[in-house]
Design goal:
single chain; alpha/beta; binds adenosine monophosphate
């Protein structure tokens, strides 16, 4: 017997309607290429999104057609999130940091019909346009006044595209399983793979995100997502924020600029900021150098890579900002875990709390977790057993775009294999120890490169660190630590190795330390271990 409840389809246009009705006066503030500080309200955003939807319909697109964006975080990009998806098309966010060959690959693979781009990416698109013949036209996200000269086909400015359109639009009643957005993983090997989100998965994920033990968003918050709109839906913030009516602040092209971020955090009275560790490193360095303190920010959610203990302590001790670590991935929309305290943990000592805060967090309702051994046997949640981390739930991908049924998604009896290796402790806190491919096995035992890297970064003379396994005649592999020195510092090998004393297991101590000026990174800022391993393939460890 079915229940007798309304079969309301979960669509992103629902959020827009709710936001306009309940929070019309809430502000959205953006740094853009053509305006250092653009301000408008939710009501303006909703009105312009309807104009955009009318304009998109006139481009002759069919339902499900892909419309791409190549842009930083600002209000026009937000309008595209809702306008493209809401009108029944698929918003394909392209990461501008990908190599041109990868961008060509994904535009062609996605069969993007139109591309909306920030002015600064016009030269890039002009260079590759000959390789992407399927694109019918380009919209430059600016007004006519600031429109650059371009050879791009059918190029128009965003403002002229939507300016004359009616602001009345009936959002279509789509099937909630219809695709709404597409994002490609920036894998370190092979071609990028497309993750195709549905309206339903997006709404459920955004709902989960606002919960108190997750992102904990409310109408009283002012949110600064430094996590890019072009990568994993900016962790769902564009949807969660409009659900609750939080004020939004977008940094535009100034994402990695500590001074701009500090200015926005203070002047807009941001209560919650989200980003990857690299971004916060830039902010903390700026604040330390300028002798400034974060006066308004209450909490930050950091994910995308392991968060070093030193960063957690600096936020808490110097700025009185609470750090919540999160873990997830493109294939998971991305939220999987979030680190918030459990009942009874308020009485823990500072050191005990930090020992928990360095972990990736607890599972979120809606995303099941398990760790398994090489034979797919489930491992205990004892905080010791390491295994392949697998997930399942309504916002986890079931297959990659156009690779359906090829096994490309490592699906195993309904579970998605994340490619991460983790432990889970008896309280349910997950700790990522490595990517499966990056695991170092020494004498048959696993060594966590992430833990060694995070400890190394705590040394004041270390700016960035990477650990890889290097061939060893007796132990098969031993860890090699590769370090970028902090500005003006010149630590010795011995000094760095002495730092680990008492901080990690003795047998995890790297066999050698190498100093470099640069480390290879992926388009999303992760260290490219594959390349490092190639670079150091013939490295001879000291006897
Ligand atoms: P992406 O799909 O580009 O967002 O990358 C997802 C991957 O980033 C995960 O599979 C992890 O390997 C890594 N990652 C994300 N969050 C964390 C975290 N808190 N600690 C360690 N690794 C993380």
């Amino acid at each position: 017997m079915h229940g007798l409840m309304m079969d309301t389809q979960l669509l992103v246009s629902m959020i827009l309607r709710h936001a306009e009705r309940h929070h019309p006066h809430r502000e959205i503030v953006s740094v853009t290429a053509d305006n250092p500080l653009h301000r408008y309200t939710y009501a303006d955003c909703c009105r312009r999104t309807r104009q955009l939807a009318n304009a998109l319909d006139k481009l002759g697109l069919q339902e499900g057609d892909r419309v791409a964006t190549l842009a930083w975080n600002d209000y026009r990009h937000l309008e595209l999130y809702y306008g493209v998806g809401g009108a029944g098309y698929v918003c394909h966010t392209i990461n501008p940091r990908l190599f041109p060959e990868q961008i060509i690959f994904i535009i062609n693979h996605a069969e993007d019909k139109w591309i909306f781009t920030d002015p600064m990416f016009v030269p890039l698109l002009e260079k590759i346009a000959g390789h992407t013949p399927g694109v019918e036209g380009y919209v430059v996200m600016t007004n006519d006044e600031n429109m650059p000269e371009t050879t791009l086909k059918n190029a128009v400015s965003y403002e002229s595209l939507i300016g004359a359109e009616s602001d009345e639009y009936e959002w279509p009643e789509l099937d909630e399983r219809a695709a709404v957005a597409l994002c490609y993983t920036s894998g370190t090997t092979g071609d990028p793979k497309g993750v195709l989100y549905s309206h339903r998965s997006t709404i459920l994920h955004a709902y989960a995100g606002v919960a108190p033990d997750v992102i904990n968003l409310s109408n009283r918050d002012c949110v600064l997502p430094v996590v890019p709109l072009f990568h994993v839906n900016a962790w769902g913030v564009p949807y969660s924020a409009l659900m609750v009516g939080a004020k939004l602040v977008f940094p535009g092209p100034k994402m990695g600029d500590g001074e701009t971020l500090y200015g926005l955090l203070e002047s807009e009275e941001v209560t919650l900021a989200l980003g990857v560790p690299t971004v916060w490193l830039a902010l903390l360095q700026y604040a330390a150098k300028a002798g400034k303190r974060l006066n308004k920010l209450q909490r930050t959610i950091i994910g995308g890579a392991a968060v070093p203990e030193s960063m957690i302590r600096e936020f808490q001790d110097v700025h009185d900002v609470i750090v919540h670590q999160g873990w997830g991935m493109t294939e998971m929309s991305p939220l999987g875990t979030l680190n918030s305290p459990k009942a009874g943990m308020q009485s823990l000592t500072d050191d005990e709390s930090v020992a928990i805060a360095v972990k990736a967090g607890r599972g979120i309702f809606g995303c099941e977790l398990r760790i398994v051994d090489d034979d797919s046997n489930e491992l205990p949640w004892d905080g010791v057993a390491y295994g392949a981390l697998q997930v399942r739930g309504p916002w986890v991908c079931s297959d990659y775009f156009k690779l359906e049924g090829t096994g490309g998604s490592h699906m195993e009896d309904g579970w998605f294999d994340t490619g991460d290796v983790a432990t889970i402790d008896p309280s349910g806190y997950l700790a990522i120890t490595d990517r499966t491919k990056d695991v170092i096995k020494s004498g048959g035992e696993w060594i966590s490169s992430i833990e060694i890297e995070n400890t190394a970064i705590g040394h004041p003379a270390v700016a960035e660190a990477a650990v890889i396994g290097v061939a060893h005649p007796k132990w098969t592999e031993r860890p090699l630590l590769i370090v970028i020195r902090a500005e003006g510092q010149d630590p010795s090998k011995e000094e760095i190795l002495a730092w680990f004393d008492g901080k990690i297991a003795k047998w995890w101590l790297p066999d050698d330390v190498v100093f470099v000026d640069e480390l290879p990174h992926t388009a999303t800022g992760k260290i490219k271990k594959v390349e490092l391993r190639k670079q150091f393939a013939d490295y001879k460890l000291p006897a």
